[in-house]
Amino acid sequence: MENTDINISALLNVDIDKILKQTIKEKIEKLMEIELNAYLEENPGIKNGKYKRDLKTKYGEIKQLNVPRDRDSNFHTQVIEPYNRSIGMEDLIVSMYSNGISTRRIAGIMEDILGNKYSKSTISRITDLTIEEVYKFINRPLDKRYIAVFLDGLFFYLRRGNVDKEPVIFALGIKETGEYEVLGFYLTVKESHNTYKDVLEDLYSRGLKEPLLIVADGIKNLDEEVMEIYPRSEFQLCTIHYARGLKSNVREKDIEEITVDAT
User: Fold this and answer.
1) Average pLDDT in the 165-188 region?
2) CATH 2.30.42.10 fits 141-257, yes or no
């Protein structure tokens, strides 16, 4: 460990919504930068810094979002425009940055985001730059060791012909410095030990060789998949799922006392 003073117990008390909100903020800001750059290629002008605004999401309000602008105020981002979308911006971002996404689906998501505001050439340029950014995130190398890796299935509205709420496996790492890092989002039709195994194999292939602890939910046989790929790691059931399991196996009058102890 680089820092023996890190409070591991405190780090394991993860606020997933807060981390997702920060990640979505960063990706939206990057997407707006790409949008402005592509706009200025076709409409010559000069960048003029950024202004701040807030954005409501299902994870809470994103404060102080950095919105780029041009000197003549001709550029108006479509990324956070409040026109009617069938899917929220936060779900579009998670879907787009998920492992397994195709370039065709990214292009479809960009059409959802940009609407008909720009010319076909500008939309194509924004899409190409976004695809490059997405695959850079998905394929980036990871640290060899993490204090802990969290795996959890979250539900997002995704478009596969129709708009449906589907599971995305979320992988979060705690670095040896104590920092949180979003390791990846993984599209899946349903949660199973096989889909989690695919996630673990992807993390391993990108360089994550020695997670000290892996925390996940109660998917059957998941602990065996973890031990196969990471035999030296500890496996821990997420306290939320652990508490749910206790509730289904104890008398009603004992539930409150036991679940308080579990969490």
Assistant:
1) 92
2) no
Residue from 65, 94, 64, 89 nearest 79 by CA: 89
Give the lowest-confidence range in 35-49, 70-84, 144-158. Answer: 70-84
Residues of the chain with CATH 3.30.420.10: 141-257
The distance from CA 132 to its chain's CA centroid, rounded to whole angstroms, is 17
pLDDT at 132: 96
Confidence (pLDDT) at 238:
67
Does residue 33 surpass a pLDDT of 90? Answer: yes
pLDDT at 241: 42
259 pLDDT above the threshold of 50 = no
Query: What gap in Å lies between CA 52 and CA 197, rounded to an integer?
Result: 41
Of 137, 138, 136, residue with least CA distance to 199: 138
What secondary structure letter does DSSP report for 162?
E
Q: Do residues 100 and 86 touch, judged by C-beta distance below 8 A?
A: no
Distance CA 205, CA 257 (A): 43
Three-state secondary structure of 207-260: CCCEECEEEECCCCCHHHHHHHHCCCCEEEECHHHHHHHHHCCCCHHHHHHHHH
Helices (H), 86-192: 89-96, 103-114, 120-139
Residue of 108, 141, 152, 147 whose CA lies nearest to 127: 108
* Cα 254 from chain centroid (whole Å): 37
What are all long-range contacts of 49-54, with beta carbons under 8 Å and residues at least 24 apart? 53/80
Q: 156: burial class by Cβ within 10 Å (0-12, 13-18, 19+)?
A: buried
- Beta partners for 234? 213
Nearest to 178 by CA among 31, 7, 14: 7
